[in-house]
User: Fold this.
Amino acid sequence: ALSALVAPAARQSVAVRVPATSANMGPGYDCLGLALGEYNVLEVERATEFGLDIVGEGTASLPRDQSNYYYRAFVLGYEASAVSPGPVPPVALTCTNAIPPARGMGSSSACLVAGVSAGFALNGFDPEDAAVRMRVYQICAEQEGHPDNVAPAIYGGLQLSFRPGPESPFVAQRIPIRGAVTAVLFVPDFELPTKEARALLKDTVLRTDAVHNISRAAMLVHAFSSGQLHLLRWGSEDALHQPQRGTLFPLQPMIDSALAAGAAGAWLSGAGPTICAVVSGSADGQAAEDDSMAALRASEVAAAFERSAREHNMPGRVVVTPVVQDGVELIDESYGGRGSERCAGAGVRSARALPRAVGARRQGVPAPGPRPLPRAAHCGRTGGPARAQQAQRRERRAPQRESAGQQPFGAPETTREASSAALQQARRPPHAAPLTAAAGRFPLKSCAE
Assistant:
């Protein structure tokens, strides 16, 4: 179906980057998500035999064979976008991770989106094309079962996502954010797999709790879109999932400490255990790292997180990062070759803990192991035609975000018609068997498994 939209020329190698995400955001269970400025980068190159390297987060725990989640997602994307049937060619992958697994920062979604997008890109499709993104979104949301992480991972910014009907495609709508917003995250050292966190939730909810969350979710959307972030103190409250998950660790005391220190709002990020607080930047859109008052607020919230973590004997680390407006990107399609050394010295940055952004490291909260690696701002050459093409794509997308929100929800009718054929295979009932790369092959699982 996609071959009817473009005539792709297969690539020899590709590199894509995908942002971290903070889903649920308190009351927006399974439907709200925010893109953050920490990235996983996936490089894929055609090769004579399979190979896989991992750099950064997950180096010691993630598999390096064909059971790796990146590779399985790549196979899914490659087969879904193949112009003609045939075997998946041998490839060499390099996975450069800044997003820690099983911490509530969208690591599984980032792996899934990166792999599927790389599969499309190697077949010649542009992951930033509206119709291709729509197809990638359907595949990833179907596989995850809920779109709150994959929507911001693909489209960036603050996303409201859901499925209108059991046989309808998933939709996503960008919620505008007025002014700059910086996230301050406390990332505990322990993992909390999503499956275990979901098992804590009740099958039924009280009407009063439902009303509570409806009002808070509406307030959250209003707070971001109007620039009145102080309203997030109430807009980030939840009664459906955080009370249950908060029994596993001191969630509420951590949230209370961030709010008392000046955070606009705070919530359990995804299924946890990461806690995400947000502070506002200046009115002209400067982020915390460029605004001394915003930097001070971020510093105070980070200090409060650390104090509360010490009090409750919960080791971890603080990360300060901006909210970003772009999702998955083809970061440099012109270079040839593979390896994390291309990222080193080409703009890769470590996950920014607070001291890198606003001051010196505070003492007291142990964070064993190496510093988080890496935050990939760019991977590949810092200039040249590919970078110019990337800038042009961003310029083309900006008017779409301002006028129509984004693709696919609220997209021009011509785009909807062009992508309708690509959506036919995505219209599956929610309880259908999980999508697999091929009949009889592996179902996708969490990258933390």
